[in-house]
Amino acid sequence: MSDLFSSAEAVLQRIPALDAEVYYLHSLDLGRSADELLHALTTETPWRQESVIVWGKLFSQPRLIAWYGDTGSSYTYSGINLAPLPWTNLLRALKGRVEAAAGSSFNSVLLNYYRDNRDSMGFHSDDEPELGERPIIASVSLGEERIFVLKHKTKKFVRPFRLKLASGSLLLMKGETQRHWKHGITKETVSCGPRVNLTFRCIESASRVMSRQA
Fold it and tell me: How far apart are the C-alpha atoms of 176 and 194, rounded to whole Å?
């Protein structure tokens, strides 16, 4: 596996990955310190723990989540149906800064709260129909640095990428990335502090999804 961007980067840089368009910014101007934002989000967000069915068995997700967005931006993944909470002033301000850096507009955000080293996210692609054919996902990390792993879905000769996501960083995935790659956050073997990840995205209307699938 490749370990990329271990040192600080001042600009949004493209990660050299086959069949993907991925960019990384080590430090995004968020308007407040990453520590302040982490504290605000962990204490003020109405976190929930969902359950998923894997191989016919029900398991609790190894992290907490929250979903915010514009009216109508409901989201379904892994059998979980999420209706959006209304934007808070803090999340709306963060959305504006992320949009300026990414050069894209977003109408929703999924928050993931990794409480310690035992929390994780399984390998998956953000390829649900309501995200569109070539979804743009902008991911902000706050708190403990965790390893983000990208694996090609079909080309086994392509080595996975390991990205250590700094607190206050921005990871941008777009183009054909979700079609050809899956990603995840693995558990750590040693204790670590909390991390909050915000993945901004754009949910298409139900009519547009149906029109595209017709």
Answer: 31
Alpha-carbon gap, residue 141 to 123, rounded angstroms: 18
0.85 exceeded by pTM: yes
Give the CATH number for residue 200: 2.60.120.590
Nearest to 151 by CA among 180, 122, 119: 180
d(CA 202, CA 205): 10
For 175, what's the count of Cα atoms within 13 Å in the CB-facing half-sphere? 13
Question: Environment class of residue 80 by beta-carbon count within 10 Å: exposed (0-12), middle (13-18) or buried (19+)?
Answer: middle
Note the pLDDT tens digit of each residue in 10-67.
689 999 999 999 999 999 999 999 999 999 999 999 999 998 777 778 889 999 999 9
Token pair listed for 34? 């990453």
Distance in angstroms (rounded) separating the CA atoms of residues 49 and 64 = 5
- Domain extent for 141: 2-213
Sign of CA dihedral 127, 128, 133, 135: negative
DSSP secondary structure of 71-98: TT--EEETTEEEPPBPPPHHHHHHHHHH
Q: Are 99 and 136 in contact (CB under 8 A)?
A: no
Tally the domains of the chain. 1
Cα 114 from Cα 204, distance rounded (Å): 28
